Amino acid sequence: MHELETRLREVDVPEPPLGFDPDEVADRAARHVRRRRAATTGTFAVAAAVAAVAVFAPGTPAVPPAAPPSPPSLADQARIRQALTDAVTELFPGLRSLTVGASSADAIGPGKMAVTATFADASGRPGDFQLTVYGRHAPDDHLPWIRSCSEPASIGLRCDRIPQPGGAELLVSEAASVGEGTSTTLTTLRGFDGVLRRADGSAVVLVDAARDAADSVQLSEEQLTKVITDPAFVLPW
């Protein structure tokens, strides 16, 4: 029996084929493990980067749209009417009559207020001009600079932009009546109109509202400048 076992051990019987290469399988397994480790490491790196941006990147807070301006308060309306009353009284001593803020053309809207002064001077001549005050955030619908100058220039009237303190600019244009049926024949010089545009975006417009009255009081350039640049004619926004 012992001799038989010895002979059987000495017989070289070839192993049956496995159908695959064990070395290749081991290599594939190693590569798979390496790819999983790399993918895991990359995922953690991306997550860490996103977290860092979320925590440390400076945020840009959403800026809500600016609310539209409100109409002038009753206190501001009263203040501006009183300021125009004082200005007219100072310009024309001895007034026979004066009404401020009673015209149907005196519109009050978001960020703006128009007020008309109707008066008779010491000699009885009528005067009528309208002042409109615009706040910093009022809709930009006051007299455009180009249009304000193009019309007077077309009939030979003066139109000047005059720098003012604080970065403001005053447009002074001659106002006139023109011949009937034409826009180029000058008949009667009617004084001056003005637009004051301040550096902060606010504005004041002063126009002659009695152009049809040949004998009405006319504002000189000096008088117009004094009224329109009065710091009382301002709205708080």
Average predicted local confidence, pLDDT: 75
**Share of β-strand residues:** 15-25%
* CA radius of gyration: 43 Å
Query: Percentage of helical residues?
Result: 25-40%
The helix-and-strand class reads alpha+beta
Query: Judging from the principal axes of the Cα atoms, what is the shape?
Result: elongated
Q: What is the helix/strand order?
A: HHHEEEEHEEEEH
Main pleated sheet: 8 strands, antiparallel
Low-confidence stretches: 38-57
Query: How many angstroms does the end-to-end distance come to?
Result: 118 Å
Number of helices: 5
Number of strands: 8
Structural write-up:
The chain has 5 helices and 8 strands, in the order αααββββαββββα. Residues 38-57 have low confidence and may be disordered. It is an alpha+beta fold and 237 residues long. The protein has helices at 2-10, 22-56, 74-91, 145-154, 221-228; strands spanning 97-100, 108-109, 112-120, 126-134, 159-163, 169-178, 186-197, 203-208. Strands 1, 2, 3, 4, 5, 6, 7 and 8 form an 8-stranded antiparallel beta sheet that branches. β7 (186-197) and β8 (203-208) form a beta hairpin. The N and C termini lie far apart (118 Å).
In short:
The protein is of the alpha+beta class and 237 residues long. The chain has helices spanning 2-10, 22-56, 74-91, 145-154, 221-228; strands at residues 97-100, 108-109, 112-120, 126-134, 159-163, 169-178, 186-197, 203-208. The protein is elongated.
